[in-house]
Amino acid sequence: MADIVQHVQQQQQEVEEEEDLKKLILPDISCLPVSPPSSVVTNFVRYFALDFMKPGHDQYVYRHANGLCVIGLAPTHVALKSEGGVSSVDFNVGKSDRSEFKVTGKRKKNAQHFQPNSILCNVQSGDTSYIIRCCVKGSLLEVNNRLMNNPGLLNTSADRDGYVAIVMPRPADWLKIKETLVTFDEFTKQRKLE
């Protein structure tokens, strides 16, 4: 009789362990978000440069774990708020056309070294032209050439396909720059986006 009771208890314990395992593997559907988080949210730490050089010139700096920073226009940038949004993007600024240089190799040969106030491009919105700056001290690795043919990406998808550039700051430079930026939570509070 004791063997039967022990066998029943063992089966009950196995069933309970199996249920616990199912709970770990299969999430409760009611606890899942309506849509999965975007790749920006899961892969980057989001920082913002508020009123960078001029009022209303808010830009984002999304930093990846590998140290690369993606630079773009924050949703509160004045160019995105004007009627009609951004109509053209020009990477030809001053003495050089940012869209024509190419960075190659592991050591990022030919990379241009930029200061935070270095100009990346000019953005036309309505009758006004806005200067978009680097925000980060580092090596410019790439600009988003698709913006020249499709500037509307800034209006519809500024935080993904409408990024402006990718910059690689040195770790010591990043620590200094990070102090001047605000986090996503601070950005939403200061711009009252909650």
From TrEMBL:
A Pfam family this chain is assigned to: GCV_H
Protein name, per record: Protein Abitram
GO CC entries: nucleus
Recorded family membership: Belongs to the ABITRAM family.
Top-level lineage group: Eukaryota
